Structures are given as structure tokens and as C-alpha cells.
Target: YD repeat-containing protein
Amino acid sequence: MKSQDTPFEGGPMDGRVLPVLVGPTGHPPKTYRIPVPAPDGGPPTVYVYRRVPRGHSKRLGLIQGWKYAYDPDDTSGGRLRWPWSGPRATRPGKPGDTHG
Model:
């Protein structure tokens, strides 16, 4: 597997650079989760980082690389989000819909 040195910003990993495995497209994962065990044996604390562009080229505006930014308000819950998935709330029927 191929890896890429990726910097981290914010949170407890601020300023560190770690080798992160890249996927078949050559990009690191969109989220990076770091579980830290609790000293008293309780549930681990999970730090979540989101992938953001490191910079853009001047002429074409292409992404120069990636970095991870700390995301303290992670709402994804660690679940995959598929494009065909609807919102988590139940969908009510259409107005005037008599089927059902």
C-alpha cells in the first residue's frame, strides 16, 4: 500500500505529520479517527479529523495536497454516507396521497 505524509491542524495532533494510507485514487480518507484509551479503563476518546485541501495552484486552482483539520463536533457517528441514502428522518407521504 502507498502512504502519504499528511499534516494535522488543531486538536491534540496539531503540528504533527503522519504517514496516511491513500486509496486507489491517490487520496487519503475523508475522515481520520484516532481512538485514545481512557486511563481509567472506560470508553476510549475518539478524535476526528476531516480532510481539507492544503492549497490550490495559482493558474488552474488545482488542489496541491491534503491536510487534516480537527473536527470536535463530529455528527457522522462513524457511518458511511451513500449518495442514494435519504435523510435519517422518516419521509412523510405526499400531500393528497391516498395510498397507504
Summary: The longest strand covers residues 45-56.
